[in-house]
Amino acid sequence: MLQELMESFEAGNGMRMSFDDLTGMLNGAHTDVPAMRLDAEHQFHMCEYCQLAKKPDWSRDCTRNKVAVNRLVVRRKAGLNGLCHLGLFDIAEPLIISDRVLGVFYYGSVVVKGQEKRAASRIRRYCTRMGYDPATYLEALKLVPKIDPDSIPRHRQTLRTVARLARFFFDTSGVRPELYKTRALRYPYNDPEDVPYVVREAIAYIAAHLQEPFIVKNLADHLNCHPDFLGRKFKQSMGTDLSLYLMQARIDRSKRLLANPKVTIEDAAELSGFSDRFHFSKAFRRLVGMPPGEFQRKALRETAK
Description:
Arc Repressor Mutant, subunit A; five-stranded mixed β-sheet; 11% strand; 13 helices
């Protein structure tokens, strides 16, 4: 539903809308909020100019730029407007649930009329520093859609409307926001093409099959590769061990399940892919710092307040 709404606002004006999920709530096919499920084009900046900018290994600078904006929005708990390092204009608006920023909506990837010279100046300055010929990017900039500066308040209000509806979808899903950790940068934030195929497939499989009790070796067999190779590639790309990533994903899922009073500890263990309650309780205590029963009682007390 959210994606249909975003597409309706995009239609005809040349602007692109996307959502940076800073918690992982939309990760994979089993998203915690089905009404907010988005395709890749609405989770990343996917305009042609952005894709061109990322080809010469500039994606790191695109990432730094996005992280800086996310951190500012999270700290201020308010939206902002601005130009990226290559001159494109975007509007950012936070998704705030229970006074916590769980993600950031973006609307734009356009040029504001009257600011063409300013955008071109940014391109030249950046290309000079990187040692690239700016001609290709200056030519591509001419094809980027333009908006009138007077329309910016209207577009800002549109983005706020999308954020409000997303908040409604989240609230009606029954998911508790305090179970999520907000990060200014998290997968799948980077351009998927920057992540090795085997790592992307591993992350997608984990998200879709968390309820199944597979281990890293099973995952490697499914991907037709050696476990050591998969673990090494995963560590290089994600900065964490694959086994720890898998365990943390299972525990995060179990915490959301335990927030429901109708879910028993045995249910949470089984639905999170643990073979038995003993191994689940041991892993839960190690990563959360308390037994699952204590966590559930605490979570239910906080809900009752």
